[in-house]
Amino acid sequence: MDVYLPIANLSVNGLVIVGLGALTGLLSGMFGVGGGFLTTPLLIFYGVPPTVAAASAASQVTGASVSGAFAHARRGGIDYHIGAVLVAGGVIGTGLGSLLFRLLQALGQIDTVINILYVLLLGGIGGLMAHESMTALRAQKAGIPVPARKRRHHPLVASLPLRWRFYRSGLYISPLAPLLLGMATGILTMLMGIGGGFILVPAMLYILGMGVNVVVGTSLFQILFVTMATTMMHALTTRAVDIVLAVLLLVGSVTGAQVGAQFAQKAKPEQLRLILAVIVLLVALRMALGLGYRPDEIYTVVPL
């Protein structure tokens, strides 16, 4: 079933795109992370231009995060106070990311920068996840209990001025910390089309010191609004959002997420993290190899 993507300016098999969306939705449901960090690389592998892949993946993440945010809101799993600060930082970061995106696009380096960012981020985070998971599995096999992580914010956060109380998270920290964290994820969302959850959740745990019971919900709350702002910014400035591509991805991801959630109930968390780490590292390796490949067409003509 061939479908024409007007912004990407190419024809694709619609069932393949739906399948890619289902795959990322499956991973999202199994591992509790947004699929944006895998959607963009998979689209690039399929032949979609990186700029269109990143912009369209952001709009897909918006739709996919709505149901998750509502589910966590119903059980009180969102700290709206710190979430609002994160959203404010994310919107500012989106604006800065838009300027950077347009600058790199004008220099003709945006595709290369997107690929390099994915290699660095996926490689680093995948390596840390793999190390943590293997340590936990070895400790389980040896019968040694893994010591519980002490909930504490980073010393750099403690040194920032203007402390506020975030009662739902049980924190007394400077609002500058979540604001800067939101800005960083906003910039990355604009450049890479990711939801930012696979960066935001560890940062909220290990840097801000937030409780596990509100981390995922607050992350989805921030992702929902920041990806909305990112989609609007892309539509108004870069004009790289392909709505046909986004709809096909969303159809697949909604179905895949339901199936993934059922699989997640039957596996151990340590095994799931290790599987996810391997997938992330394989994607990073494939993108690293792609940076060294000589393309079939060295020069391409892009319509203005």
From TrEMBL:
Compartment(s): Cell membrane; Membrane
GO cellular component, one term: plasma membrane
Record InterPro entries: TM_pro_TauE-like, TSUP/Inactive_protease-like
Main subcellular location of this protein, as a coarse class: membrane
Keywords: Cell membrane, Membrane, Transmembrane, Transmembrane helix
Transmembrane segments: 12-38, 44-70, 82-101, 113-131, 171-199, 205-228, 240-259, 271-289
Highest taxon, organism lineage: Bacteria
Topology relative to the membrane: Multi-pass membrane protein
Pfam families: TauE
Family the entry assigns: Belongs to the 4-toluene sulfonate uptake permease (TSUP) (TC 2.A.102) family.
Protein name in the entry: Probable membrane transporter protein
Organism the protein comes from: Novosphingobium aromaticivorans (strain ATCC 700278 / DSM 12444 / CCUG 56034 / CIP 105152 / NBRC 16084 / F199)
